[in-house]
């Protein structure tokens, strides 16, 4: 598996005199795209203090590299996220931390059954951040999810 780049501001301290604390919870974001979504989450990390995000919450954007750079199929992203949880270097604590997988539903247009399958697969152990979910599924099915 290719290495993954992690973007976070967790290790930044105002001064060396200030004690470094461990985060209460880490949120790991893996995005389908490598441009727009990545920019959004980098900005979120950069503006965390201004937005009032609790200082003991660590937000990490995990950017895919190497052969994984263009990984975008939601099923493959979910499998990729599960592998990342088991990499010791990532320090993912399944009791406290959350993996968020961000993807668009445009490939599921007119395929609500496939979307439901991916949704069920992904939500078991992760948080799914789905863009345009109503574009793909009926209002009735959306309420059930």
Give the DSSP E fraction (strand runs of 2 or more residues): 15-25%
User: Sheet with the most strands?
Assistant: 5 strands, mixed
The share of residues in helices is 25-40%
Q: H/E series, N to C?
A: EEHHEHEHEH
Q: What number of structural domains do the residues give?
A: 1
CATH architecture annotation name: 3-Layer(aba) Sandwich
Strands of the widest sheet, in order across it, are 1-3-2-4-5
Give the beta-strand count: 5
Structural class: alpha/beta
Description:
- The structure is a single chain.
- It is built from five helices and five strands, in the order E-E-H-H-E-H-E-H-E-H.
- It is α/β, with parallel strands linked by helices.
- The protein has one domain (22-144): Rossmann fold (3-Layer(aba) Sandwich), CATH 3.40.50.
- A five-stranded mixed beta sheet has the order 1-3-2-4-5, with helices on both faces.
């Amino acid at each position: 598996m290719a290495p993954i780049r992690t973007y976070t501001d967790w290790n930044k301290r105002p001064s060396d005199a200030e004690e470094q604390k461990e985060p209460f919870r880490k949120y790991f974001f893996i995005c389908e795209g490598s441009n727009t979504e990545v920019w959004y989450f980098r900005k979120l990390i950069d503006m965390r203090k201004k937005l009032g995000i609790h200082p003991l919450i660590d937000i990490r954007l995990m950017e895919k590299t190497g052969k994984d750079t263009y990984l975008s199929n939601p099923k493959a992203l979910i499998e990729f996220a599960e592998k990342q949880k088991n990499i010791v270097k990532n320090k993912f604590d399944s009791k406290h931390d959350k993996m968020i997988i961000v993807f668009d539903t445009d490939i599921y247009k007119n395929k609500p059954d496939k979307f439901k399958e991916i949704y069920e697969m992904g939500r078991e152990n992760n948080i799914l951040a789905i863009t345009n979910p109503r574009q793909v599924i009926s209002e009735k099915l959306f309420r059930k999810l």
